[in-house]
């Protein structure tokens, strides 16, 4: 299973709702639902002082599409989503939900740490 992760270009987010719930130690935010992703897009748009219509114009989508995205509509076009994120200076990445224990072992070995339970 995969989850969406986005990284703000400025390295921080002013997303107000549930920031601590999505916080990641590397400065990214993890979204487990389209509603959370939509809220982050809305917050970033507001941070940039853009209307839905202006964001839509710049991204080449309709205002209705932006509205549906911000409401967490589950069936959005990925190409259009990428266009909107680019206008907002955001990147989208995918990461596995489960830890790779072998990667943890390699990191422990590289840093000379004693292996411990990473679960």
UniProtKB/TrEMBL annotation:
SMART domains attached to this UniProt entry: HTH_XRE (SM00530)
Pfam family, one: HTH_31
Domain HTH cro/C1-type, chain residue ranges per copy: 41-95
GO molecular function, one term: DNA binding
Protein name as it appears in the record: HTH cro/C1-type domain-containing protein
Organism the protein comes from: Jiangella anatolica
Record lineage: Bacteria, Bacillati, Actinomycetota, Actinomycetes, Jiangellales
